[in-house]
């Protein structure tokens, strides 16, 4: 039976790069996003390039608990993921004291609560079989406060805390847990910014870090990976 990976928010940037890296290795893919057209194109691309794998690509807005639960149920019908990558994220710039009303709730539900409910949906099966790897795609904004970071930074600090707690819980069950904390990576969030592309990291480099952490022996886990542009933060 082939291995499988579930990556939330898989049509762009880091999520897409992770999916393509694992698809190359023969993993079945389960993913979701809010844009149906993007999902269709991704599914067609994967099935064309890697005809031996299966692909589940569902429209889902994971800021809503009921949607997370419905999507996770569809994934369970499709496969039992060996790897879960909580990647869904939203960045809205602003300051805590004057950002638009609702920004805090939206980013906490999208960036944090979605990972909480998705993780709860799949950990028991991983515990039962004593294997599995859960990755949280955080941010260096979860390590250092930045101007204009606002609620996004709060959600990423919380994501790191969630992942640290989960790591402790999963230790005796042989389930691995890893925080990926990337710096500025050239994704849709940075499009239109007046900076040279060379100043950013490549999403494919983050995907390689995930693949490398996954491939360690059963007795070893990478707990945190901090990745920054060579010239430092933006």
TrEMBL record:
GO molecular-function terms, A-Z: oxidoreductase activity
Record keywords, A-Z: Oxidoreductase
SUPFAM superfamilies per record: NAD(P)-binding Rossmann-fold domains
Record-linked InterPro entries: NAD(P)-bd_dom_sf, Sc_DH/Rdtase_CS, SDR_fam
Gene3D superfamilies: NAD(P)-binding Rossmann-like Domain (3.40.50.720)
Keyword Oxidoreductase: yes
Pfam families per the UniProt record, alphabetical: adh_short
Similarity comment: family membership: Belongs to the short-chain dehydrogenases/reductases (SDR) family.
Protein name as annotated: Short-chain dehydrogenase
Organism whose genome encodes this protein: Algoriphagus faecimaris
Lineage: Bacteria, Pseudomonadati, Bacteroidota, Cytophagia, Cytophagales
